[in-house]
Amino acid sequence: ESILSGQERVFEDVVEDFSEVDSVRERFEDWKQTYKDTYQDAYIGLCLPKLLNPYIRLSLINWNPLEADCMDFEDTKWFDTLVFYGFKLQETIAKDDDDIRLLPSIVEKVVLPKLSVIAESVWDPLSTTQTSRLVNVISKLGRDYPCIQANNKATQHLLNVIVRRIRKTLEDDVFMPLYPKSVLENRSSNASVFFHRQLWVCIKLLGNILSWHGILSNQMLRSLSLDGLLNRYIILGLCNSGVNKETIQKCQSIISTFPKEWFEDLEDDKTMPQLENLGRFLVSVARTLYSEGQQNKRDFDKKDSRDFIKQISKMLVNIHAMEYAVNLPM
User: Fold this and answer.
1) Residue among 328, 318, 330 at smallest CA distance from 260
2) Of 152, 150, 165, 234, residue with least CA distance to 196
3) Angle at 117 (CA atoms; ends 114, 118), nearest 5 degrees
4) Whole-prediction pTM value?
5) Is residue 21 scored above 80 in pLDDT?
6) Cα angle, residue 257 at apex, residues 329 and 278 outer, rounded to 5°
7) Is the four-CA dihedral 141, 121, 154, 98 of positive or negative sign?
8) For residue 241, what are the contacts with CB-CB under 8 A and spacing of at least 6?
9) GCF C-terminal domain spans which residues (predicted)?
């Protein structure tokens, strides 16, 4: 609060001509229109992003796109002030005019570093809402600003921060308790409630991580989501949770998070190596359902068992584990 309250006083001792973005824009536009040659010789177009940096950083001091009521930075006063900087209606814009790159440069030098701080210090990867908002902001920047690309240093720094934050969550915030199955059979016990809640939290986090598909590389995504979460925690929890309808629902939720593009170029009848454990687990569930359905050991009959096995077969097909799907007991 003290920072926000002092926001208005930052430029109070600055002369009026340089106290606001409007004033700065007006003076430099006058220079460009009146003495265009000297304006270009001084490379003002390249210097302006650095000159405007403190003004824009100040205006973005409480900008947090993770909040529901956060204004899009493109709707702010400084953006409206600069969007047509240096150009007049019906005027031909030269392709080599550095002023064309004013806003993209500001996004690169001010907005991306701000997002890096938010991703590192504010964003909670366990929050689906926050993750969705952060993904949407970065996706929009990538679509609208050509400077936001893989070989850009500011972009690389932001993505590295995101990866580090996810890894920190995997190391510090993910916990999968292990209990005897006899304890978990009592669904109302504290241990069982805690166990299933933790497993659902892991599945939720899996979806949050995979929402970065198209932004993070597939190799990195698979490392974080499959190696770091699915095979390390979730499969362990599934194996310990018994065979029931909820287990099948969990598997469906897991598979629904996988990008379909991962399976488009797979050859033969095998799935990705990182999904072999999941495939084998689904086969074991199907065999257990078939065996116990035949013996009427559970609350569901043979028809229910066949329905569940069909669902498992569909899941195996969805992850391209054809070799497992065709050999399920029916």
Assistant:
1) 318
2) 234
3) 90
4) 0.89
5) yes
6) 35
7) positive
8) 184, 195, 196, 199, 247, 250
9) 21-233
